[in-house]
Structure formats: C-alpha cells, structure tokens
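Incident log entry.

Two folding requests arrived from the same account within the same minute. Monitoring flagged them as a possible duplicate submission, but the sequences differ. Recording both here for audit purposes.

Request one:
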Amino acid sequence: MKQRLEKLRDYLLHDLIERETAVRLALLSAIAGEHLLLIGAPGTAKSILARRLHLVFSEGGYFERLLTRFSVPEELFGPLSIKALENDRYERLTHGYLPSANIAFIDEVFKANSAILNALLTILNEREFDNGDQRIKLPLIAVIGASNELPDNPELDALYDRFLCRYKVSPVSAEAFPQLLALSDSEQQPLPENERLSMDTVREIQQQARKVKLPRDVMLLLDSLRLHLQQNNLYVSDRRWRKVIKLMQVSAVTNERDSISVWDCWLLQHCLWDEPRHRDLISDWYQSHMGIGSGFNHERLEKLVHTWETSLQSESSSTIQSKNSAGELLYEDADGDPTPLKESNEPAERDGEFLYLAPPDEDDRSNNGNGYTRDELLEHFFDDIYQQCHINGEWQHINAYTRGSVNRFAHHHNNRAIMEVARHADAFIRGRTRETQAIFDDINTLKEKLQQQQLSLEQSITEHLWIPAGFNEKAAQSLTQAITAAKDLADRIERVTASYAGLPRE
C-alpha cells in the first residue's frame, strides 16, 4: 500500500513545481475523508491539483465550479426536475453536479451565499444531501476549496471550519522560475486502472486507522502545543483536535505503523491555524519541541533544575549562632572577643583617661553624652580644699567616688551574634543527593532517547509519505539543540548533587 501511495503522490507531483506540501496534503486529506482549503492567487495550480486528485481514484465523478456572489443552488446541486414538479415533488437532477461527485473543486468557496451555505455544510460534514423529501448518501471523498482570501463574514466560520487541512499557495519562487518556463505542454499519461484507489481501499485504510494507537509521547507533545496555542490566544475546537488525531492515524497506517509518531505531528501546522501567519508560530514551536516526544520538556526541566540550584544556594549559605562548651549562645563584644552576653557596657575614655558620671542629683549625669574627666568632676562638683562632694546625705571623697563602678561613664554595646555555617544531618544530605541524582538519571535517559530519535531521523523522515524533502535538516538541528540542552541540564544537576554531598555535616 505504501508503495502504491508513493506512486500516486509522485503522479500528482508531476510538473507541479514547489507544490510538494499541497500535493501531500491533498492526497492524505482525501484518504482520511477530510477536506483541503487552498489559499492563494489565481494561476497557482489549485484547480490542476484537484483534477489530478480525482484521477487517482477508480470510481466516481469530478465536479468543479467557481462561485460568485450571484451563484444559485442550481449551479452546484443541479436543476429542479420538471417531471418531479409535475408530480408535486421538489427534486433536483444531481447527476454531473456536486452530489454525484467523489472529488470536487470549489473555487472562491467563501463567495457561497446563504442559499447555498446550509446544503454545502451538510455535504461537507455528513456527506449527505437533502433532495426533496429524501436525504441521500453521497459518494463524496473530499472537497478542495480555494479562495484568494480568508472569510471575513462570521456566517462563513462554520464553512471555514469544515476544512481540516489548510495551505497557502504562493507563486513559484525566483529560483524555480526558469524551471517553470521550461515545462513542456505535453499531457500527462493517465494512471492505469489497477493503480488507482478504489473506495473499498479507502474505507479499509480508514478502518485500519481507527486501531492506530496514540502513544504517551505524542500526548505530551499535543498537550504542550495546546497550552502554547492558548497562551497565544489561538482557539482550536475539541472537534478539530479529534479530526487531527484521525488524520494522523491515517498518516501512521499509510506509513505502515500501528501508532502515531512524533513525525506525524508535522501535519499539525497545516490543521490548527486560522490565519496563514499562525502557521509559522505552530511550525517553529513544533521544530523546537520535537524532543517532548521523547519526554524532554526543556522549559519544565529548566525550571526544575533552577529550583534545585536555588535551594542549594540557600541551604549551603545558611548559618546558625555559635555556642560555647556550656551550650550558651555566643556574641562578639566591642573588643571582638566572644561572650555569652547579648549586650555589654564599655568604659569610656578620653585621651587615655577614664570618664565618669556627674553625681546622682544632677539632671544630666552624662554631660550630653561626653562624660567627665576626674579634673572636670573636681572643678564642677567637688570642693577645692577637701575634694569632697555631698552625695545622698554623706560627704564622699573623689577617690572613693571614681572607684565606684556605678559612677563610671560607659558606652552601651549590643553585641553581634557570632554565626557559623550550618551543619546538616546525614539523613538530610542523603535525601537531597538521592532526589537530585534521580533527576540526573531521568535527564540522561531522555538524552539517550533524543539521540536514538536523531539516529533514526533520516530514515524516518525520508521514508515518510507526507513530509516533504528538506524537513530532516530542520529536524536534525532541533534535535541537536535539544540534546545539547539536555546535556547542559544534566551537568548542572550533577553539580548540585556533588555540592549537596559536600555540605558540612553534623
């Protein structure tokens, strides 16, 4: 089956320059039973692609129509049957029109007016058409819609949402322009009937796709992408997410796998945007977050490692107050010596002389904080002959006065606590090293998965039916960056582990 699809893909690509992605999306969408919207100027091979797509299927008709504001339902769904009207029945002759086609191309699809819109929505979504009093099943495989611009009328939002895959078609680049001019006008040979896809084959592929598994690594990637889109105010409905899974299941089964891979998620950039500029936002995110498919979420791990680094810095710089042999907390006095006293008084001096307080009956004994020398005491408070002063009802000699410690002038000193690096219990250190070592082991495991993913990259992408050539270089660069980031995180958490092991112990 994969070889058959490769041939069909190459058939569609014949002489279509720089249309690899559009061709892949058209064929995959059709096989998955989804519709494709092509946005671009006229003359960019949109209709040619639709006509060729019809040719890869073995049965069913092709329908093509350009809509205008004045288009009427008869142009899409067929004229009213005169014979049925004669019998009071309202029926259309649908043969050769959209209800009879398996592949349809509707140009300027957003020109659909209200008379056409409701029937068109039912056709696209349910593959059914109300013809008179009957709702008939249609053979429709896929519709390729085309438009020069996005819809600007809210009434068209439902129609816009029916196209799961969306692609902006640009004119051929300057590099490929000479190749365009050199194309021959010879017609392409039709496909042999036995190489075309039958409806039974399409249904069989879709049935097998329902059994394709959605592995945890892809779930992690999709969950992270959904959060990224929400943070950028890009809404994706639950229905569209379900359809995206279905598309990736078909991608997986046609690539002969029984589970969706990270590489199938390449398709997301063509399914989740509302405006073409959003595609780059999704594509860039996908390319830089492929490693999430291996469980490597750089943002989450960066926060985790940073948290441990912060904790280590806090715990390694933590201090406690020193104690003496008696278990008393120690402080540093004014002379820099350890003391168990939280505060102390330091005798004050001036020019090498001790200072004193004035007698107790003075309002300001400290002399405005300057104290008194012995001579200043004699001059101001003691008599000159006997060198005495009347204090508390008694005469006191100056020598006795200066010997009393209560009369010394002193500076009050709040002693600074003596701190030392905190020591940690063995159990605490073992717990910290065990936790950080586990993170180191996890990051290394993820790094090995990334390396395995990188080794299988070229084969996985080169053989992938729906990823265009050239993507493997971007993917390889992204994985290399993820591996480098994983190594850096592993080195950092390893240093944290070693630092915890070297903390002072009790």
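Request two (distinct sequence, not a duplicate):
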Amino acid sequence: MKRREALRAIVAGPMVLSLPRLALAEDAWPSRPVRIVAPVAPGGGVDLVARTMADRLTKVFGQSFIVDNQSGGGGVIASQAVARAAPDGYTLMLGYVGTHGTNPAVRKVPYDAVNGFTPIGMVGGTPNVLVVTPGLPVKSVQEFIAYLKDNPGKASYGSSGPGTLTHLVMEQFKQGTNTFIVHVPYRGIGPAIMDVLGGQTQAMFPGLAAALPHIKGGKMRPLAVTGTSRHRLLPDVPTLEELGYKDFDGVQWYGIVGPANMPRPVVTRLNAEINNQINLPELKEKLSGEALETMPMTPEAFGTYIKNDIAKWTQLARTRKLEIE
C-alpha cells in the first residue's frame, strides 16, 4: 500500500503543485515593474492621467508602474501592441475615447477594442464644450443655430482631426440641429485652437480642459457642454441635454485596460485600488485641474461603457457617412 501511495504522490505531485504555484503567482503580483502604455507622445491629457495613475499605483503596490509612451496612428500602434502582449498583468494601457471609442467607430483598426482587451477600471472623463469666437454675433446655442441657418456655409469649425471626438461631436450637433458648418480638420488640438482664437474658424467642440484657459481669458465664448449635468467649473453654461438635444452625453474619457484574459484576481485588485485612489479628495482635486471628473466603475461596468461608446459613435459615423481610411 505504501508503495502504491508513493507512486500516486509522484504522478499527482506536479498537477497538485501547479495550482498553488498559479495562486502564488497571482498573490505575489506585482513581483516586477508593471508597464502602462500611453498611446500618445509625452504631454497632454492622456499622458497626464497615465503618469498620475502610475505614480499612485507605484505607492500602493510597492512596485514600479512605468509609463511607456507609444505614439502613432492615433493610438493604433500602442493598442495593437498591448492587445498582443502576454495577459499576465505586467502590460497595461491607458485607454481613452480615441482608442476604445471613436477610432473603432470610424476606421478599420487592426485590433478588437472590445474582445481584444480586459477592461480594468475607468478613471474619469471631461466634457466637450461648444465654443465660438467672441466676434461671432451669438451668445447662446439657439442664436448659434439661427446664425448657421441664416448663413449656410459661411461659418467653419476646427477639429483635432477626422474621426476624433472633436469632429464627431460637432457632426452629432449638425445632425441634431439640422444645420451645416464647414469642417476644417487639423493635426491635433493645438493648431485647431490657435485658428479659432485667430478667427480663421468660428467654432469648435474641444475638451473642456483644453478650452478652459481661453474661456477664462475671454478669447472663447462657451455656449454649452456635453454630459448629463453642468460642469462645476462652468456652472452658468448649460448642457445640450437640458436645452432639449438628446444623447449629447459623450465625454473625453480615460481608463486602464490590459490584454484580453488577464487573471481575475489581478483585475480585481487593480480595480479596487484604482477606485480607492480616484475617490481620494486630493486626487480628485488634482484631476479637476484638467477638468476631469472621476468615474469609478467595476470592470464589468467599464466594459459595458466601452461597448456602448463604440456603438454610439459607429451609428453616428454610418448616418453621417464618416468612414475614414
């Protein structure tokens, strides 16, 4: 009997031991530095959020979380690389509305924004704000609509590029108000803002963080914001929803994702700490400097949010025939 039991132990040993090893590997995570890919060049909102979360998670876990900037293709290069990475919790990404919202809606991207990633935690979002040059004779959305209808084709708006949120929100506005305004795409938000400040274009739908200094300086006139409630930094500016224009709830959002099929315990731990951090008053205050409101979610809720955002912009792109090569 003893000999048989010994043989069984020898055969079963590796199988039994493999389960504790897996558990230990997940419990010990992270045992080495974790990479957070930022799908942009250094600077700007995406990079800021990535570095803010990397710093917080480094302190929480006692292991380095390092930001790896991989720009190119409007986030396509970074997204493709992360989707192909090992799902071991050591490669994460700061996904945002461009990589997991608008890009998949208007372009044929070489990655699956839903099934190719593990949603981990939403960080937050900032609304877009409809602004016009002070020289345009309008002070409300209603007056802006009337101006566009009385002057068809005379006004233009800038965007940070075809298929970006600044482009799609204005196309949504044109559709919802039955108006027309000429689209002038730029390579990034900076030059688009410069031309609206200079009067070369008359309107824009930038993110609030980018527009706020110019609004405060009187160089842009805000007419309305997206989202479901007024923003605390612009309490006198109405939402499009309250003005009667439905479904203008899109925001420039940021969240942490990883490759598909990440270990559930790792995802759970990361989600809990992300939510803990973004609920801290000092971090809320820091992010509010970028007009960013925190949006804690479970991984499941974040995954649903991504699916719904892609579906929303896909429907708009089809209606407006906005497929971009």
